[in-house]
Amino acid sequence: MKKTIETTPYIEKTHFWGRLFSWVAFAMLMMVPIAVMLHLDTRPSFQQVFDGFKGVALIFWTAAVLEIAVYAPMLGTGASYLSFVTGNTTNMKLPCVLSARESANTKPGTDEDEVVTTIAVATSTIVTTIILAVGVLAMGPFISKITAPGSPLAPAFNQVLPALFGALGAGYFAKHWRISALPIIVAVIVLIFSPSIGTGTLIPVCVVVSILGAYVMYISGFLTGGVKPENPLKKKK
Amino acid sequence: MADFKESGFMYAIAAAIIGFVLVQSIFFFVRAWRHGKKIGMSTKVLKNTVTSSALFTIAPAIAILTTVVVLSSSLGIVLPWIRLTVVGNLQYEATAAQSAMDAFKGTEDAVPFGQNITNPTVFTAVTWVMTLGVIIYLVLVPLFLKTVQNKIGKVTANKDGENKFGDIISAATFIGLIAAFIGNALAGKAATIVKDGVEQKTGMGAGVMSVAVLVTSTVLVIVLQKLCQKYKWDKFEPFVMPLSMFAGLGMAVLLYTVLPESISMLEWRP
């Protein structure tokens, strides 16, 4: 088999297990509406389902392609398979992976990184599943009270993302402050002129700007103490 | 008739899905742990990963739980629980349910989003739309993940540790992602959903609160990391980021309690 990048036997095997679990998840998820339909002995018309589906298909399916293209290389192999099956990638799985990688000081593509990122996402999934199960079964009314508008804790639940990404960003901003300012400024400008843009669209924009900015800063010598390095994209392998 | 949305049958489906998710996670966890030990990684590093990931998960998980509670007013508690356990996402599920319910507008089965669905046909249509909206992940990932990681990963990742350009591009990718969320905290508007026919905010836009929380968690990480390096607090290091995140959330509660609401809840991007 021809490989475009060297992968370790462990990562190769992870692809096998990941694909297997993904197809099982696909079958199980499709069984949910089928089982509900058979159990309730009712059948919405194709048109009724299609009318609802076409309202979300373009946004969801485009976002899925972008998310997989942008996040999969950041997450690592095992973590990607787990994360895309269990969802909540940006607001939960990715922060866990970035934090774990930062703490363990591992490099993407290595077995060490695979181990750490997989453990991070698996732990996060198990903890989330337990919190949701306990919350739904035992604490539904209690949760709605502490998160209801007017509760003293309610403001905290509206600010989970700034708290999460502030904490995550700090390490990167301190280490790479030269390349951090541009994507943040661009994000703010985009939001000022296009306030209804979803985070799912804003992320790829910021990632592309950040990479292009970093590339220009690198080849101009701004990141290497004024010494202009050879353009890595022109370099022969 | 008892509420069909919360019947024993629905709970049985939820149990099967949740069981599958747990089995998959435990399988990958054990496999990664064993491989980590085999290649000589220390138990301390692996345990620190577990601790910091668990701590990082608590607050977002409670936020997801609130989405389940919000959606339950229309869909009962079980379907949102299933959907947010597999491929689920905070905003997608509300949007998909809303879109499916909108398809019945103008018919006698129409129910505005937010009100209890009593018609099994509407409920089944919602279940289909919520499933079809996200099923694409479970087709694309097994088919293309390997190719994507090989092609794009080649640019962002580097293995040799001496590729400075690779390191910079890798960092720039993460920074781009984080910048989108920082931008939202500085200038983003609150997301909205249409509930009972009225457009409603589902959170807060950028304002005093979001900036105070952002600054608190960011500054605290930098200060605590410096202290850890200076005084060699190795054992405390994995807790720095999760603790700073909780401190940011604590700042939100503190501001709301101490300052007048006109200041603490001021949003410049409502």
- Give the C-alpha Rg of chain B: 22 Å
How many beta-strand runs of chain A? Answer: 0
| Secondary structural class of chain A | mainly alpha
Q: Roughly what percent helix of chain A?
A: over 70%
Shape of chain A: globular
Average pLDDT reading of chain B: 84
The tally of beta strands of chain B, per DSSP, is 2
How much β-strand is present in the residues of chain A?
under 5%
List keywords for this structure.
heterodimer, A: 237 residues, mainly alpha, 10 helices, globular, disordered N terminus, B: 270 residues, two-stranded antiparallel sheet, 2 strands, 3% strand
What's this, in brief?
By secondary structure, chain A is an all-alpha fold. Chain A is 77% helix and 0% strand. Chain A contains ten helices and no strands.
Give your account of this protein's structure.
The complex is a heterodimer of chains A (about 240) and B (about 270). Chain A is globular and about 70 Å long. Chain A has about 240 residues and is mainly alpha-helical. Chain A is built from ten helices and no strands. By secondary structure, chain B is mainly α. In chain B, about 70% of the residues lie in helices and about 5% in strands. In chain B, strands 1-2 form a two-stranded antiparallel sheet. In chain B, helix 1 (about 10-40) runs parallel beside helix 3 (about 80-85). The longest helix of chain B is centred in the N-terminal third of the chain and has 33 residues, at about 45-75.
List the helices and strands and how they pair.
The complex is a heterodimer of chains A (237) and B (270).
Chain A (H helix, E strand, L loop, with lengths): L8 H32 L5 H30 L1 H10 L2 H16 L6 H28 L1 H8 L6 H5 L1 H16 L1 H17 L5 H21 L18
Chain B lengths: L7 H31 L4 H33 L2 H8 L4 H13 L17 H16 L1 H20 L7 H24 L4 E4 L2 E4 L6 H24 L8 H19 L2 H4 L6
Antiparallel strand pairs in B: 1-2
Helix pairs in contact in B: 1-3, 2-3, 2-4, 2-9, 4-5, 8-9
